[in-house]
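Practice problem: predict the structure.
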Amino acid sequence: MSSAITLGDFEVSLIRDSVYWWDGGVLFGVVPKTLWSRKTPADELNRIPLAFNCYLIRTGSHTILLETGLGDKRDAKARERMRVPAVTDPLPGVIARHGVDPEAIDIVINSHLHWDHCCGNTTMQDGRALPTFPRARYFASRGEWEHAHERLVRDRVAYLDENYDPLVESGQMTLVEGDHEVVPGVWMRRAPGHNRDMMVITAESQGQTFCFLSDLVPTAPHLQPSWVTGLDLYPLDTIENKILWLTRAAEGDWQCGFGHDTEIDFARIARDAKAGFIVRAV
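Answer:
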């Protein structure tokens, strides 16, 4: 499966920041291991591989980065727990290896503000969190930002203020209310379930659509509507929104990207009598 596609006047590329390992039971919630391990085998510590998937959309007028991956704020203990090397390449370097000048990025969109989706928003320098992409305007959901500051026992460990607060304070990050068109054809659309204000990102040009599903569908096995992560705050909403968005994707012949799949760069979705939805064979 290609790491870059053309949609009308847009070009969309996968930028896989790096791969980490996380507990499989967390990623599949109440789904028995005897089922999920057939599709995603676990290591000796019950961890499965996940990717920090970012996507780059070039519209001709803008170079837009979706998500910013691992960043530099996780300590050695956390990296060891995730099987991540002590030192990883900064995201701008990863982007440059894809033939794109990171200085050209003028928009960054976060689907939500969990650390694994936005830790690369800023880079630590002399104890200060500075924008990794100084020229860019950043976009995130206001409801999600407000939720991050509620410090709820259930999910407060998922948020690091250094990833977004300096950008909000400087005015570089725009906090949007509900669905929002960032530039013509590129939309942030609210899709609750994983949390209250998570967004899926769509890019449409000349009748062709790319949809970044983020953690609504973190990996291809999660296409089955009832396969919901143990991290989702509103699992019934996740199921409802999966059916809604995957139906649109299947009927519209969209290209889709998953938040954490390590194998699939882009996928078209098909209905399936048994699983509900599957990756359509090309």
